[in-house]
Design a protein that fits this description.
The complex is a heterodimer.
Chain A: H1 9-23, H2 32-49, H3 58-76, H4 82-98, H5 103-120, H6 127-147, H7 156-180, E1 205-206, H8 210-214, E2 220-226, E3 237-246, E4 251-253, E5 270-276, E6 283-284, E7 286-287, E8 300-301, E9 307-308, E10 317-323, H9 337-340, H10 350-362, H11 366-379, E11 383-384, H12 395-403, E12 405-406, H13 408-421, E13 426-433, E14 436-438, E15 443-447, E16 451-459, E17 463-467, H14 469-473, H15 475-480, H16 482-485, H17 501-522, H18 526-535, H19 543-567, H20 571-589, H21 600-610, H22 615-630, H23 638-648
Parallel strand pairs in A: 11-12
Antiparallel strand pairs in A: 1-4, 2-5, 2-15, 3-4, 3-7, 3-13, 5-10, 6-9, 8-9, 13-16, 14-15, 16-17
Helix pairs in contact in A: 1-2, 1-5, 1-6, 2-4, 3-4, 4-5, 5-6, 6-7, 7-19, 10-13, 11-13, 12-13, 20-22, 20-23, 21-22, 22-23
Chain B: H1 5-8, H2 10-16, E1 25-27, E2 34-37, H3 39-57, H4 61-85, E3 89-94, E4 98-99, E5 103-111, E6 116-122, E7 129-133, E8 139-146, E9 151-153, E10 158-162, E11 169-175, E12 181-184, H5 203-212, E13 214-220, H6 232-238, E14 242-247, E15 254-257, H7 266-282, E16 287-290, E17 295-299, H8 302-313
Parallel strand pairs in B: 4-12, 15-16
Antiparallel strand pairs in B: 1-3, 2-11, 3-5, 5-8, 6-7, 6-10, 9-12, 10-11, 13-14, 16-17
Classes of the chains: A alpha+beta, B alpha+beta.
């Protein structure tokens, strides 16, 4: 067991506190035992620094490392992947603290600290994390400064100030590099399987309760900027998926095929940009009905009018599309789409089947049947609620006849079931509807809470027509959003409650800021980079061009900084001159101004004659000034003394006062 | 860890090594300041590269921000390291004579127009002396040079370096004021004047000294007494510390004679004589020194000591 003598306690405390801060954001993600383990190690190192505990020898260290690695292996069942690697790295960094014995270890620890900060970005890159980045960089840099002084240490405030100054000077270099460093598309090597775990969003199935669960989340799904005016809510149906296979409880998506037919536009086109949050699924939400010729590169319009791409969306994605909301309905489809859209399980939900058959026989045509079914939702006591009762057995029957309380997936699902029971092709569309318009940023925020499910019914000669049964139950859901449609007294998720006007303002400002951040900082990729330079008039830049600009840019920034830094050749002289200038200003204020050609001694003599009451102080200040300015051997502390004397020198207008 | 230019640019190092002697004061400017990354700086660059690759792979925009901020920090740190040396004014401060085997302290006086913390002053690979220039006015600090042999010690150039503020770069400069330090022979204390014990090989001196000092008795010890005069054996019996008293007749003079010594080689004789001078000074016994070429009449005190030791140091050396 070794006793630790290095580093000195204040430095050690600073290092440990900073490292604790570096690890802290992982605390919520790491298993509890590992967080506790890291905390114990930091505490141990601190106590060892105070001489209260011995440091472990290398065998104990090795044993600890192996034990914790086995723990991680048991926890994650692997040592590879994002979470396991972050856990391992955190563990090793904390063990390094126990091993901290000399300056070299301390440097390495600070470097590891910088590196650890980057692992937080795998989980979140919001504005708070950005602020945290700068805070940590400041603390770690201060430690670097402290460690680069082998003997005396400057006072901590001086070191903090210096570190802030260095970082501020580094910011222009960072900006130049950030803008000009050539970006490449796609990863250099594989990403761990779990790199994008835990993202919220729609899935490719829908069972009762699926969307009402999603509606509890205020996470942003995507933001939309419309080139023209904001379309009315009734048009704001953002299609994600079409589900046309029903197994008695859950609706599933079929494999879709790319649209082969050419389409004719109908009505006015709406052009918009979508910034999609990553959801780790291959689909891209678009407003009904997307023009296939305006799709982003890699995007594909399918027969069911959903848009997909080959890979899953793992980074925030920006794309622009033109849609035609007035497009009547599509006749295009795969050959087996209609048979698929009428298929039902052989048995189950008999009451619903019977109802559909009964109403169908009473109706003259398909329109009447559809309207009768919608009226049933409207007229009978159906309740639109975010907290529907759980459906256990025959979910359609239970909902239609017993509970009568449901969210959009209940209405859409049972409606499509009734259609199919009557032999009418019908399918479920999931996506988002509505959204909240941010007037400050002039864009629409669509959250997971805006997730919605509706149906499409096949009308011979017209094609697939959107029917939204939720509108029949709670029309205001479509027009005014979820919060207004829920029955009074239902507990709303916090974010859905109607905020006070200033809260609303604050919310929108914050979201606007986040949107800009997402667009310009986080979304600054190859595409953005190229388009930025094109817009600035550089044309299409290659990475060679960027490299050249980069060198020139960094070179000029460093040049300017060098001028600034190296200019102050007479630094003490500067301080002394400034202090003396203050002195002269204060003398001038009491009516004794120094003439431009008057030497300090002459000035002092004249001033002393005019104000004998101030003579000794004038004399003292002038002597110090001359000694500092012209004397060969100025003494330590004189500058401070002079500055202090002048700071206290506040003469009044006349001696008698 | 010190980075010497020799390791990086052997040719350049040859140019630098030209034995230019600075006279008066040296103000460090860009012609005199060299700067290179330290090993830590290179390690930092490796970390940055790893962070850059990670940021590219995972498309971490904030990763780019952090990496580029740190890259900027490194560059800014380089400027500040350079600046920490720029404008420093160096004057030679001299070096007090030392005995061979000791460290000679060559003083250099540093002065700067502003605060210059953590400056290292070193000679070759010797551990540096750290100086913090935080106030105006010159600050003198010694650079240690091992004195191996008697005569003049001319260490040549000294290195003034700094790694402040971030330790990622080292800026350094050489100054060579051609200063030298007198190195006395390493004293050998085999002959104990006080005890009157004769070391057999110094027979020639013994006779002369025995007449000079007679043991006359014991008195109570005073704090100022040298430990070797304490009669330890007698003290154990009397419960009080006793000091041996010697009578020193004024007429008796102590002659330290080079030719009277029995040692075969010159260096040993010089060392022995140096030891005797120290001993005589310690006992406050006037002494004279006879060397083949020069003779110093008996005397006592700082100037006698310096005179005699200097003669020993430069014995047989042309540049006296």
């Amino acid at each position: 067991m070794l006793k630790s003598a290095w580093p000195p306690l204040p430095l050690l405390t600073g290092l440990l506190a900073t490292m604790a801060l570096v690890i802290a954001p992982h605390a919520t993600r790491l298993p509890l035992w590992l967080t506790a383990f890291a905390a114990c190690i930091i505490a141990w190192r601190y106590l060892a620094g105070r001489g209260k505990l011995p440091l472990p020898n290398k065998w104990l260290l090795l044993a600890l490392a192996i034990a914790a690695t086995v723990g991680i292996l048991l926890q994650y069942h692997t040592l590879f992947g994002r979470d396991a690697d972050v856990a391992l790295f955190t563990l090793m960094v904390s063990l390094k603290l126990l091993e901290l014995k000399n300056e070299r270890d301390a440097w390495l620890t600070v470097f590891l600290g910088y590196f650890l900060v980057i692992t937080h970005f795998l989980y979140s890159q919001n504005l708070f994390i950005a602020a945290y980045l700068f805070l940590i960089a400041w603390l770690l840099t201060t430690l670097l400064i402290a460690f680069s002084q082998p003997r005396a240490h400057l006072p901590w405030p001086v070191q903090f100030k210096l570190s802030a100054k260095l970082l501020l000077q580094a910011v222009p270099v960072m900006l130049v590099l950030f803008v000009l460093f050539p970006r490449v598309a796609g990863p250099l090597w594989g990403m761990p399987q779990d790199a994008f775990a835990g993202m919220t969003g729609l899935s490719d199935t829908m069972s009762p309760g699926a969307i009402s669960r999603l509606a509890q989340s205020d996470a942003v799904a995507f933001r939309v900027e419309f080139t023209g005016p904001l379309p009315p809510p009734a048009q704001r149906y953002f299609r994600v998926l079409v589900l046309d296979r029903f197994d008695g409880r859950t609706w599933h998506a079929s494999r879709t095929q790319a649209m082969q037919d050419s389409l004719t536009a109908q009505g006015q086109g709406v052009r918009y940009n979508i910034t999609l949050e990553p959801h780790d699924k291959p689909w891209l939400p678009v407003m009904d009905f997307a023009d296939p010729t305006t799709l982003p590169i890699g995007g594909q319009l399918n027969y069911d009018f959903s848009v997909t791409q080959k890979d899953t969306v793992q980074q925030r994605k920006r794309y622009s599309v033109t849609s035609y909301p007035a497009f009547g309905g599509s006749l295009s489809m795969e050959v087996d789409a209609l048979p698929r859209a009428t298929r039902l399980p052989a048995a189950g939900n008999p009451r619903g089947r019977a109802l559909a058959v009964k109403v169908a026989t009473e109706s003259r045509n398909q329109e009447e049947f559809v309207n009768k079914m919608l009226s049933r939702f409207h007229d009978e006591p159906y309740v639109y609620t975010l907290n529907p009762p759980r459906l256990l057995g025959e979910s359609v029957d239970e909902f239609l006849f017993d509970t009568r309380r449901g969210f959009c997936e209940h209405y859409a699902g049972s409606f499509a079931y009734l259609m199919r029971a009557a032999g009418i092709p019908a399918r479920i569309v999931t996506g988002y509807q509505g959204g909240e318009f941010n007037q400050l940023g002039n864009y629409l925020i669509v959250r997971q809470a805006d997730a919605h499910a509706w149906t499409e019914v096949w009308f011979a000669g017209r094609g697939w027509v959107r029917i939204d049964p939720t509108a029949a139950v709670a029309a205001s859901r479509i027009e005014q959003g979820l919060a207004s449609a829920l029955p009074a007294g239902e507990a709303l998720p916090f974010f859905l409650r109607e905020p006070s006007p200033w809260m609303r303002q604050l919310k929108f400002s914050w979201d606007t800021l986040n949107n800009r951040w997402n667009q310009w900082v986080l979304g600054y990729d190859q595409e953005r980079q190229v388009s930025l330079f094109a817009r600035l008039g550089f044309g299409i830049v290659s990475w060679q061009d960027l490299g050249l600009y980069l060198l020139v840019g960094v070179g000029s920034v460093i040049g300017v900084l060098a001028l600034f830094t190296l200019r102050g050749r007479r630094e003490y002289a500067g301080k002394v001159e400034r202090a003396y200038a203050t002195f002269c200003t204060r003398m001038a204020r009491i009516g004794i101004a120094r003439a431009a050609n008057e030497g300090p001694l002459d000035f002092a003599a004249r001033a002393k004659a005019l104000r004998p009451d101030l003579a000794s102080r004038i004399e003292g200040i002038t002597r110090l000034y001359i000694a500092l300015r012209y004397g060969a051997n100025a003494q330590a502390g004189w500058v401070q003394e002079m500055i202090m004397l002048i700071a206290r020198f506040r003469p009044r207008k006349s001696a008698s006062e | 860890m010190k980075i010497s230019p020799q390791r990086f640019f052997p040719l350049l190092a040859n140019l630098i090594r030209s034995r230019r002697i600075d006279d008066g004061a040296v103000v460090l400017d860009r012609k005199r300041i060299y700067i290179l990354p330290t090993r830590r700086g290179l390690l930092f660059a490796v970390f940055l590269l790893a962070m850059l690759l990670g940021s590219i792979n995972y498309a971490l925009s904030l990763g780019f921000v952090l990496t580029f901020l740190l890259a900027g920090l490194g560059l800014v740190g380089m400027l500040h390291t350079y600046r920490n040396l720029a404008g420093v004014r160096i004057t030679a401060g001299g070096a007090a004579p030392v005995f061979a085997g000791e460290m000679a302290q060559f003083y250099l006086c540093l002065e700067a127009p502003g605060a210059r913390p953590a400056l290292g002053l070193a000679w070759k690979k010797q551990p540096p002396q750290w100086v913090d220039l935080l106030e105006p006015g010159p600050h003198c600090a010694p650079a240690s040079v091992p004195a191996t042999q008697r005569g003049w010690l001319a260490p040549g150039r000294f290195t003034l370096f700094t790694r402040f503020p971030l330790g990622l770069f080292q800026a350094w400069s050489y100054v060579n004021f051609g200063s030298r330090c007198l190195v006395y022979p390493k004293p050998i204390a085999s002959f104990d004047l006080a005890q009157g014990e004769s070391a057999d090989q110094s027979g020639a001196l013994t006779t002369q000294i025995e007449g000079a000092e007679d043991f006359t008795g014991l008195r109570d010890a005073r704090p100022s007494d040298a430990p070797r005069h304490i009669a330890w054996k007698a003290s154990t019996k009397s419960e009080k510390l006793l000091t041996k008293q010697f009578s020193t007749p004024g007429a008796a003079t102590l002659w330290l004679d080079f030719n009277a010594l029995a040692d075969p080689d010159i260096e040993t004789r010089l060392s022995r004589l140096a030891g005797m001078i120290l001993e005589a000074e310690h006992l406050q016994q006037a002494y004279g020194l006879r060397l083949p070429s020069i003779e110093f009449t008996p005397d006592l005190g700082e100037s006698q000591r310096a005179r005699c030791l200097r003669a020993l140091a430069l014995f047989g050396i042309q540049d006296a």
